[in-house]
Amino acid sequence: MLEVIALNEHDALGAVEGGAHRIELVGTMDQDGLSATVEQVAKIRAVSDIPIRAMLRDRDGFTPKNVSELAAGARDLVDAGVEALVVGWVRDGKFDTHTLADVLRGVPECEMTIHRAIDNVADYGAGWKKILQLPHVTSVLTAGSAAGVDAGMENLLTQAVDPRIAEVMMVGGGLRLEHLDRLKEAGIRKFHVGSPVRGGSFANPVDPVLVCQWVEATQ
């Protein structure tokens, strides 16, 4: 399964043409990716039915700026038709389930991708234990380390031994084609890319030829 970061309807169409299975919709890549908007969702839905997972994040880092605004945004994005929300916060070095519950109180049945907050906790294994206790988590985006897949590979492989983790683990963050064989051998089947399908820069649109290359490589 390949998920591609999209910023607009043109990116979404490039992802569809290349054979991506879904998109992670981000409002802007400033500060490593901030919340998607209802307007973006509407423009994509006008041209494609590709599944949309929408980022919900209101500032750099992994602590929230305004929980009530995030909660309102969650309801609006779900009402607009996204299939899941991309969320996650850290408090005192631990995965923050309290903020997560407050933000999602109005959409209690919504599916979730837990994003790279998991890579920013003090104890990676303990973070996974906490996430496995949560309902409706169908993907966990992780590089195994805040520094990316190169640094986090051993963490990824160690955790993927647990089949519950391998099922939801979605690897992204400095992911390159040469990483894929080891990850697939470990039973990981979900992958996430951004700049690699844009010629290396978010200044470029999603390139369907590069998406197709990644789709084939991740199968």
TrEMBL record:
It holds the Pfam family CutC. This is Copper homeostasis protein cutC homolog. InterPro entries: CutC-like (IPR005627), CutC-like_dom_sf (IPR036822). Belongs to the CutC family. PANTHER family: COPPER HOMEOSTASIS PROTEIN CUTC, COPPER HOMEOSTASIS PROTEIN CUTC HOMOLOG. It comes from Arcanobacterium phocisimile. It comes from the Bacteria. Gene3D superfamilies: Copper homeostasis (CutC) domain.
